[in-house]
């Protein structure tokens, strides 16, 4: 199978995606109360790894293309793929995206949320709220016959109406027993453009929304993507399936 081929999953496979997705969502729920001032991103990682193993699952990020840890922890100006680190201690007012992907019975559940550490000013809360709403507006576009461009257009219109910007370099992706596969799901775009959605397609929607410029920069570790202007970036992610009459979110507890 060429990686650019969009696979249609069977009901059996979607049931497996639902189990992986549920575990992923439960893992985020488990980690949420640990997100407090004074905790290190490595402690969050280590608890995620322990919990995942205890649930007979595997952490897909660990060793994926050389990624060194089990989850991604993206703090403040980090757009995505932040690497957990013992020296990175959360402090009041930080925002942190935690992105988890357990593998259950060979299938991946990929979900993330941005948490506010302690208290943050209203404009930071607004960025986080708008980003979560962008995810749900994108999901609301998903149904048979809709186009991939409809998802990005809905997200981009909403984010930009607040003066925020949409990251271009990182996009949602097809997902199944493979972590990242076709199709790409951009979080920007034009209604009516792109491939048509069909029942059985499974992919992520994971908008990264920036306070300032949409431009990113890769740090020297080769993973950590930051905003070029070092302003804040937030992200939320779900794995979804196209159903006969709409959409199912697979990453629910
Ligand atoms: N979970 C991320 C995504 O949403 C991918 C992380 S890949 C890693 O696609 F190697 F950085 F872990
Ligand atoms: Co993810
Ligand atoms: Co993803």
Question: What structural keywords apply?
Answer:
17 strands, 24% strand, binds 2-amino-4-trifluoromethylsulfanyl-butyric acid, 253 residues, alpha+beta, Creatine Amidinohydrolase
How much is the radius of gyration in Å?
Answer: 17 Å
Strand content: 15-25%
H-E string: HHEEEEEEEHHEEEEEEEEEE
Class derived from helix and strand content: alpha+beta
Shape: globular
Number of strands: 17
CATH first level? Alpha Beta
Question: What are the low-pLDDT stretches, counting only 5+ consecutive residues below 50?
Answer: none
Range of helix content:
25-40%
The CATH architecture term is Alpha-Beta Complex
CATH topology, what is it called? Creatine Amidinohydrolase
* Strand arrangement in the largest pleated sheet: 1-5-6
How many domains? Answer: 1
Amino- and carboxy-terminal Cα gap: 32 Å
CATH superfamily: Creatinase/methionine aminopeptidase superfamily
Structure, explained:
This protein has 253 residues and is an alpha+beta fold. The chain has one domain: Alpha-Beta Complex (Creatine Amidinohydrolase), CATH 3.90.230. It has 4 helices and 17 strands. The strands form 6 sheets. The chain has a 3-stranded antiparallel beta sheet with strand order 1-5-6, with helices on one face. A 3-stranded antiparallel beta sheet has the order 2-4-7. The chain has a 3-stranded antiparallel beta sheet with strand order 3-14-13, with no helix packed on it. The mean pLDDT is 98. It binds 2-amino-4-trifluoromethylsulfanyl-butyric acid and cobalt (II) ion (2 copies). 2-amino-4-trifluoromethylsulfanyl-butyric acid binds at residues 61, 64-65, 67, 72, 81, 99, 101, 110, 204, 206, 237.
